């Protein structure tokens, strides 16, 4: 009888919990038709292409997105005025609660629309002597007698160096430190920072005026010791945060596309309290990008086109689901295979990888593969021997511009060598753009080299020589004895480490 009562209590608690969706959307330059002097010049009312017709189209297009998105709380960026918000609310009566803020001399501000009761709004000022940006909007909500906060951000764009975004992060963190330890909160908005902004600074040194310190990674602590904070490690350091982009496969991580490169300026970042046993809970794997066909086609975002007076925004909305009760069956997956590693971004605790066979070795780097599973690159692998099998303890993994790697491990034991190594290699031509072939090793394949590409069977793939002195000077045929199928940013590539990995053919 006691067990039945407990079971009924659990079921009732689950039934009476409330799930709610939170979204963030940079609507891109939504100006009204009143002249305020602070407009961007192309949005001065009734000049050029910004007029009543354009405004009405923009309004209806934003309304379509918000209606289809159907979030309970929507954070908006790049709104010019209360007039714009009022026009939205007239068509969205279900959003009874809303707030808009901006600086007087700023072109745009931020806003919140909510079906859930707002009990307080606070403006966090972030000001500079030489530039004017936007304040941070701190909004407190109440649902089922539970209070929680959302911090709606719009940090400076990449036209400004990193020190400006770092200051935003510090002002935000200082405010968070003033909150009661039991207060749940969500950081979201257009941070103009990729989830892996540390890598961005290394590839775009013009932004780096902070000695590679970034606001999103180092100040808000979405990384610790250069590793992303995970759901399992978030409690290891105070004021650390988990970035929900890590739930998506690498190829799906984008809300903005710049020069054909995926970017994640829009973020949703959670503290440890969203993963505890009290108040508000995050629903695992509910984070996603809202991208219906009318917002993106052929990898092009259908942004506002001033000349055509149509379109939406250069950003895509992001969203996630939360609950007032802890959700059942939200266990973190236990890992045992290399395939499992490709399904995640960070491991929550060390795990054992059995029968990992070394199929390639170059100096201190190695590639290991499990039978009937996948291959993966390993750093600091000087103790691993080619063609040997090992049981390994894996401590951390990383993504290097999309390439999955193991960067910390130890050998548990050495196993018997496999009798046949041939099955561990790719010795026939494939579609090498297939992400499932990442880190595999090709063997004894003939290509034609020309201008940084290897050509084969009416296809081609970029080739990267670790030693630039090995790059062929002219078009030639090559026998690739062994080489890694690598991946850099969005592109697969064959990686050749040393001169013994290939030979010229006549």
Name the features.
Deoxyribonuclease I, Chain A, disordered N terminus, single chain, 506 residues, nuclease, endonuclease, 7-stranded mixed β-sheet, OB fold (Dihydrolipoamide Acetyltransferase, E2P), 6-stranded mixed β-sheet, 7 helices, Endonuclease, alpha+beta, endonuclease activity, 30 strands
How would you characterize this protein structure?
Helices cover 15% and strands 36% of the residues. By secondary structure, it is of the alpha+beta class. It has three domains: 14-323, Endonuclease/exonuclease/phosphatase (Deoxyribonuclease I, Chain A, 4-Layer Sandwich); 338-414, Bacterial OB-fold (OB fold (Dihydrolipoamide Acetyltransferase, E2P), Beta Barrel); 425-505, OB fold (Dihydrolipoamide Acetyltransferase, E2P) (Beta Barrel), CATH 2.40.50. A hairpin with a 2-residue loop joins strand 9 (223-224) and strand 10. The chain is globular. 38% of the residues are buried. Mean pLDDT is 93; it is low at 1-15.
* Arithmetic mean pLDDT: 93
What is the count of helical runs?
7
Assembly type of the chains comes to single chain
What portion of residues belong to β-strands?
Answer: 35-45%
Share in helix: 10-25%
Radius of gyration: 26 Å
Backbone shape: globular
Query: Based on helices, strands and strand pairing, what is the structural class?
Result: alpha+beta
Poorly predicted parts: 1-15
The top-level CATH class of the largest domain is Alpha Beta
In CATH, the homologous superfamily of the largest domain goes by the name Endonuclease/exonuclease/phosphatase
Number of domains: 3
The profile of the biggest β sheet is: 7 strands, mixed
Proper CATH architecture of the largest domain: 4-Layer Sandwich
- Ends apart, CA distance between termini: 83 Å
Count the E strands.
30
What's the CATH topology name of the largest domain? Deoxyribonuclease I, Chain A
């Amino acid at each position: 009888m006691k067990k039945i009562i407990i079971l009924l209590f659990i079921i009732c608690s689950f039934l009476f919990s409330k799930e709610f969706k939170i979204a963030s959307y940079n609507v891109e330059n939504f100006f009204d038709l009143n002249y305020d002097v602070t407009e961007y010049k192309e949005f001065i009312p009734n000049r050029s292409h910004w007029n009543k017709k354009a405004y009405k189209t923009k309004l209806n297009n934003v309304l379509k997105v918000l209606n289809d998105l159907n979030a309970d709380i929507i954070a908006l960026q790049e709104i010019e005025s209360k007039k714009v918000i009022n026009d939205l609310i007239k068509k969205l009566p279900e959003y009874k609660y809303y707030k808009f803020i901006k600086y007087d001399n700023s072109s745009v501000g931020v806003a919140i629309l909510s079906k859930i009761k707002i009990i307080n709004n606070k403006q966090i000022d972030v000001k500079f002597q030489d530039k004017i940006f936007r304040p941070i909007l701190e909004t407190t909500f109440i649902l089922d007698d539970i209070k929680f906060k959302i911090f709606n951000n719009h940090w400076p764009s990449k036209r400004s160096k990193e020190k400006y975004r770092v200051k935003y992060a510090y002002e935000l963190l200082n405010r968070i430190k003033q909150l009661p330890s039991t207060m749940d909160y969500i950081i979201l908005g257009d941070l103009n920072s990729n989830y892996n902004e540390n890598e961005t600074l290394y590839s775009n040194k013009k932004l780096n005026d902070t000695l590679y310190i970034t606001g999103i990674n180092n100040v808000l602590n979405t990384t610790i010791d250069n590793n992303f904070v995970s759901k399992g490690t978030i409690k290891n350091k105070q004021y650390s945060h988990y970035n929900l982009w890590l739930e998506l496969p690498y190829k799906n991580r984008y809300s903005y596309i710049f020069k054909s490169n995926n970017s994640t300026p829009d973020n949703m970042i959670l503290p440890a309290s969203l993963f505890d046993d009290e108040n508000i809970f995050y629903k695992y794997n509910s984070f996603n990008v809202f991208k219906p066909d009318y917002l993106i086609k052929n990898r092009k975002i259908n942004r506002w086109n001033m000349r055509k007076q149509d379109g939406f925004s250069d950003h895509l909305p992001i969203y996630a689901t939360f609950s007032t009760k802890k959700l059942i069956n939200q266990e973190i997956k236990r890992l045992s295979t290399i395939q499992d590693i490709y399904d995640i971004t960070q491991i929550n605790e060390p795990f054992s990888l059995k029968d990992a066979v070394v199929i390639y070795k170059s100096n201190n780097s190695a590639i290991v593969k499990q039978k009937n599973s996948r291959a993966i690159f390993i750093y600091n692998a000087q103790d691993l021997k080619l063609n040997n099998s090992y049981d390994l303890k894996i401590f951390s993994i990383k993504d290097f511009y999309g390439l999955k790697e193991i960067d910390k491990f130890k050998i548990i034991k050495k196993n018997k060598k496999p009798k046949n190594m041939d099955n561990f290699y790719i010795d026939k031509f494939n579609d090498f753009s297939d992400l499932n072939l990442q880190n595999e090793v090709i063997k004894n394949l003939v290509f034609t080299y020309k201008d940084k590409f290897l050509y084969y069977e009416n296809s081609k793939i970029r080739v990267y020589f670790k030693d630039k002195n090995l790059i062929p000077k002219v078009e030639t045929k090559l026998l690739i004895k062994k080489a890694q199928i690598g991946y850099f940013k969005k592109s697969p590539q064959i990686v050749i480490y040393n001169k013994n990995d290939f030979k010229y053919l006549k």
